[in-house]
């Protein structure tokens, strides 16, 4: 996805590290939760960019950059949400609870 310019380098590294953290059996729930969180965040951000343009002028610098109509969407937020939701079903957490 990085080579196709769909995600940034930091997001690619975070995704790879999270997959290693989840293990093979936990990677499918992680990818599913990340995709759902990314879609929801994208819809939320697109709606905010359309209806809350006042923040694109008066807010802090990070909000001004986030509210740019054709700006990037920070996918690290979705990756973090996906990792937190998938962690209870990961082999690492299962081994911790069992042992």
Question: Which descriptors apply to this entry?
Answer:
99 residues; mainly alpha; 73% helix; elongated
**Overall pLDDT, averaged?**
87
Give the N-terminus to C-terminus distance in angstroms: 37 Å
**Main sheet properties:** none
Task: Assign an overall shape.
Answer: elongated
Structural class: mainly alpha
| Share of β-strand residues | under 5%
Calculate Rg over CA atoms: 16 Å
Helix-strand pattern: HHHHH
Account of the protein in words:
With 99 residues, this protein is mostly helical. The chain has 5 helices and no strands. Helix 1 packs across helix 4. The chain is elongated, with a radius of gyration of 16 Å. 15% of the residues are buried. The model has no long low-confidence stretch (mean pLDDT 87).
Give a brief rundown of this model:
This protein is mainly α. Helix content is 73%, strand content 0%.
Give the topology.
Layout: H1 9-51, H2 55-58, H3 61-66, H4 76-86, H5 91-98
């Amino acid at each position: 996805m990085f080579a196709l310019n769909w995600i940034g380098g930091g997001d690619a590294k975070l995704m790879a590290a999270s997959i290693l953290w989840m293990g093979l059996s936990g990677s499918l729930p992680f990818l599913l939760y990340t995709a759902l969180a990314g879609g929801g965040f994208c819809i939320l951000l697109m709606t905010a960019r359309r209806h809350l343009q006042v923040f694109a002028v008066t807010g802090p610098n990070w909000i001004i950059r986030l509210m740019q109509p054709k700006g990037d969407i920070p996918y690290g937020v979705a990756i973090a949400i996906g990792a937190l939701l998938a962690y209870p079903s990961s082999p690492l957490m299962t081994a911790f609870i069992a042992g």
